[in-house]
Amino acid sequence: MENLLYSSLAKNKEVFDKYFENAADYYFKPIKISGKNAAIVMCEDLIDSLKLWQIFLHPLNNLVIEDTDLYEFITDKTTIPFNPSPCVDFDQAMFFITAGFALILIEGNNKALVMPVQGYPSRGVDKPINESNLRGSKESFTDVGRKNMGMIRRRIRSKNLVVKTIQIGSKTKTEITVYYHTDYCSQEMADKILDKIKEIDLPVVMESGYIAPFIDDTKGSVFQAVGYTERPDTLCAKICEGKIGIMVDGTPFAMYYPAFFHENFITNDDYTQRPYFASFIRIIRYFSFLIAVALPGFYVAFTSFAPQAVANKLLFFVYSSQNSTPLPLFAEAVMITILLEIIKEAGLRLPAPIGSSVSIVAALIIGDAAVNAGLIGSAMLIVCGLSTISSFIVPSFYEAIIILRLVFIVCAGLFSIPGLAFATLYLFINIVVVNSAGYKYAGVFSKNFIFRDGITKASWRNVKTDFDLKEMEYENR
Question: pTM for the complete prediction?
Answer without folding.
Answer: 0.81
